[in-house]
Amino acid sequence: MASHLRDFTLMNPSNIYWSMVKEDPHDFIDEVYKILLYMGLFTSEKADFGTYQLGDVAKALYVEWRDYMPLRGGTVIWEIFKNIFIDRFFTKKMRESKVVEFITLRQGGMGVHEYSLKFTKQSKYAHSFVSDPRDEMSRFMRGLSDDLKEECHSAMLHENMNISRLMVHAKHVEDKWAKRKSRDAKRSRSLDSGS
Questions:
Q1: pLDDT, tens digit (0-9, with 9 covering 90-100), for 52-102
Q2: Alpha-carbon distances, residue 178 vs 126, 146, 188 (angstroms)
Q3: Where do the structural domains in the chain lie, given as residue ranges?
Q4: How far is residue 50's CA from residue 89's CA, in Å, rounded to a whole number?
């Protein structure tokens, strides 16, 4: 156990301070999970190590909850720990604001790559909107610029299309347009200098 703890701390997981408004409990718990998964720990060990990074309030809640679990005939596993942690520290107001952020997400001035990353990150807050692969692709398309929507709509209809492939396709179309625009600009410069 001590060697696992040393390995865990050497990986420098983030802390959560509870005082910063922009702290996202989901990001914290996801980062800790990635480290614990890499370490190859069992699910019950992950919950114990996860609390190591928590502040005093969360640790007290965990200890109280962990001590109660054996009375109910179970061990603390990561998924149970994560759900209790999120329910307790990710308030309803925070959850609702994240869902609204996701629903109103639009590409705007972002490139497809940046929009795709934001879409993927924010989709974890709105499971009901992306639970079905077709709904997820439709939601992604809804936020794209109008030109890209038109180009990507037919691609979405392919049977083997999924969200990852659709994102790659949209990026490919955007890159193709950028190359064409650059090529046209070079042509017009060469025509202007040749006149």
A1: 555 555 566 666 666 665 545 455 566 777 777 777 777 788 889 989 999
A2: 32, 16, 15
A3: 2-90, 94-194
A4: 14
